[in-house]
Design goal:
Chitinase A, domain 3, 4-stranded antiparallel β-sheet, EC 5.2.1.8, 11 helices, 3-stranded antiparallel β-sheet, PPIase_PpiC, alpha+beta, rotamase, PPIase_dom_sf, signal, single chain
Amino acid sequence: MSRMSPLFRTLRKSAFVLVALSVALPRLVQAQPLPADVVTTPAPPPALSLAPASTPATAPAPASTSPGVPAGAIAVVNGVAIPQSAMDSAVSTAVSRGNDVDTPQLRAALKQQLIIREVVRQQAARAHYDQRPEVQQASDAEKVDVEIQSWLQDNVHAQEPTERQIRARYNNVNAELGKYEYKPQYIVLADQAVAKGVIAQAKAGKPFDALARKFSIVPSKENGGEMPWVSFKTPVVEGKTRGVPVEVARALAKLPVGGVVQQPLQSGQAWVVVRLEDKRPMSVPSFDTVKDQIRRQMIAESMDAGAAKLVKSLVQSATIVQ
């Protein structure tokens, strides 16, 4: 059986997963910031946490709120206060995952997520989704999320792609694939000196996966920095690297299998140590093999866009004080 391209292997199984609260709303916060006319103090999108995961989190001073927000709350949505305890819980969850530290930027991003969550919850409650059997049967901790997800499922409608559109997507994806597929491992760090030290340890024979688990500041550290197979055309061209930072793609194209970069690569504010775990010829699957997967991917994207549009509309019509 032909190997699938990176896109086809990472297709999501269900369009509804995209509108689940835990997946959709964090993206919506970044893609659709709260409109200026309903936000008293707009917050920036979440920044990449560049402190090593082992760095102890230091709680910042609570952000100031407007006079219209009662004590013990972070915001008021249509007259309903969001308690500080909700923020504390959200911060604790984010930090416990190991790729965030408690910073003002993280709290600002989580605050916007909680506001959006409350806006959608209120809309679902107006439609009596809180009385639905699946919501009533959920645990107390999950009731609101199940209520919101059920409402979104019923109110976000995906457009069914045509055979022509599916084939066009197939052709476009395959046109971007290169001669080879690369299996990378990454260690992402905040400090260049630490990154150089990690390279020295890797060169001295320290297992790369162990170094990733110890030093990397991104979620891939949990599986030793291992990333999915990726293919792109060479010579590497900016914007045509299948989502891989261009400097990383150039390194992967030059490394021998098992090789580690001589120097850390800067990508934005982070420093990346790259190892090429494996390399193989690219084998493109036939259209008939993957057309159903492409169809599901396109429906998922349609669901995502519909959810973003709907939530943005709800937020714009809400009265929000923070």
